[in-house]
Amino acid sequence: MRAVNLYYLSGISNERLFSDYENILSGRNGVTRIRRADQTALRSLLKALKRNGLTDLSLYDGFFFSFIIDHIGKEFDLLKVRSDRSAVLNIELKSQEIEPDRIGKQLLQNRYYLNTISSEIFSFTYVSSDRRFYTLDRGGRLTECGVEDLIRAMRTFTSFEPEDLSRHFHASDFIISPISSPERFLSSQYFLTNQQMFYRKELQVAIAAKKEEALFLGITGEPGTGKTLLLFDLAKNLGEKHRILLIHGAALSPGHLVLNAALPSVTIVPIRDVTEEFLEESSCDVILVDESQRLYQVGFDRIVSFVLSRGLSCIFVYDPSQVLSVPEKERDISSQIELLCGKSICSLSSRLRNNPESAAFVSNLFNLKSRTAKYRYENITLLRAASQEEEELLLSYITRKGYVFCGMENMRDLIGQEFDNVVVTLDSSFFYDSAGLLTAAPRKDNAWLPDRVLYQNVSRCRENLCLIVTQNDKVFRKICGILLPPGK
């Protein structure tokens, strides 16, 4: 996507033509329809700037209009970045008057994301219905200002970055896992997506409105959609009025221990500690269960029975696709949760953890027919090992470079965590079937489902993924085909 000169758009009032022309100027990958309200607000802003003496057309140049950070769906109306990245100018457009608190909250949230580019952020909002301007001062306080303040800021942006603004945004900069980054979570260095905030409100309202009967709620979604972040955000907020018992469906990680010590109204325990005696002695009002699809039947039944007997609120977080063994698949706890919760299930759909390139590669890795020509997969490393000894040599080298090995041996310890750099291995049991789907022969020595384990492990990656294919040239060649640029 390229930066555009806003002046070129100032005289176009036809809604469809405005979008078409903007798409041509910005060189977007696909067709994007600019909202009518944004078009109207932009034309009003440009008129105000021209009326007040901003006639230098070069100062209208270099703006990214309706820019979106793909992997979280965060949108900015207008952005301009100095070529040396010493400052960023952000202008938000509103066609109708809204509460100042909402204006300030949006600009503060924008600063959080834009700080990955520069610490100097000029933040403005223009409301076209009454031609008002607002700005944030250095302390983050919202004040009403005049058009001359915006013009003064624009005059300091005589140089700008012309394209590829997306390269400044990385998932690891602002997508956090409360378990992998507990300190950032506890200091509230994160924001929820609109979908997460909507579901948080729905769940809080449901719990507040509950009478005497037990209440069962669910949160579901594929890996990387932000289920655990939403759950822990709920625990932190609900903990202001309730006593929370948060049950993790696997062993606790060091991050869990940090959160346990820092959240006074929240008690985090592994499922193995949840005995009948433990529940009877607990004084919780709300029970939250993470990784619920991994529960044994006896554990699931014990939790449900206790919630029913006490008339509590209970939220199960689960992902039907993330079953790792034949027994987990046969128990099908996910279906039991859905039967229990009925329509009270929040389905997260926006994939957050992976950047778009990684997400596209993972999709193609497991289904050869889902090939996309959009990415060159520069953050994917593919290695071939001719023997088990060579695999160990390569694995040692890659982990020394900062990659975290995610395999069948340590998967239980990694449940709920995510990492910037992940390395996985594929042995000779993997193959592509006639439909182009990656699968694996069953392991005679255990009940794990290798393809499901692999899917879970690659889904832990936020940025860079390395695959080591051992003694399996057929699969190695297929993955090479994915990584080759189209037409090669």
Helix content: 25-40%
Please indicate the percent range of residues in DSSP E strands (runs of 2 or more).
Answer: 15-25%
Uncertain runs with pLDDT below 50, 5 residues or more?
A: none
**Estimated radius of gyration:** 25 Å
Structural class: alpha/beta
Largest sheet: spatial strand order = 1-2-3-4-5-6
Mean pLDDT: 90
Kindly describe this structure.
With 488 residues, the chain is of the alpha/beta class. It contains 18 helices and 18 strands. The protein has helices spanning 15-26, 36-51, 100-114, 147-154, 171-174, 182-186, 194-209, 227-238, 254-262, 276-281, 297-310, 326-331, 333-341, 356-366, 388-400, 411-414, 450-458, 473-483, and strands at 64-69, 74-81, 88-94, 121-127, 132-136, 142-145, 215-221, 244-248, 266-270, 286-290, 313-318, 345-348, 380-385, 404-405, 419-426, 430-432, 438-440, 461-470. The chain has a six-stranded mixed β-sheet with strand order 1-2-3-4-5-6, sandwiched between helices. Strands 9-8-10-11-7-12 form a six-stranded parallel β-sheet, with helices on both faces. A hairpin with a 5-residue loop joins β16 (430-432) and β17 (438-440). α7 packs across α8. The chain starts with 14 loop residues before the first helix and ends in a 5-residue tail after the last helix. The relative contact order is 0.09.
